[in-house]
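For consistency, the fold was encoded as tokens, as this record shows:
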Amino acid sequence: MRTCFAQARLNNEKGILDMSKCDKVISPSGVLEDIPEQTSALLYSKLLQDRAQTVGFDWNYLDEIINKLQEEINEFQEAITQNNRSAMIDEFGDILFTCVNIARHANLDVEQALSHSNEKFKRRFHYLERQAKIQKQSISQMTFDQMLELWEQAKAEE
């Protein structure tokens, strides 16, 4: 194994460390050191997981991570049942971290995927607002079920 931090290059566009020339990453202060923290929490999670993977700490199969996600959701539900806010924050963070790992293993850009979902939500919500206006209703006076029905129509039209 050789030390690769001196060889690592920061890709300014995506903030991703290029470790392609490294066999394993070793730093005198630890494998996870020197990861730039000036990124979004989602990207930072990916960088942490990428770095851990360089020394073999990684799941082998995507379905293992999906099972882990279900485990984290169950733990989050338990924290809700116990009304334990600290545990809810902890478990919800674990859910997000695991989702980033799923995206990483599926070769998806987590920021791009979330941006896509944000735009989809916005598009469907605009549909809901337009339909409410056509029906001469104020969206704020509609029931959730009425809005959900319009939401499903928006989905069907995409």
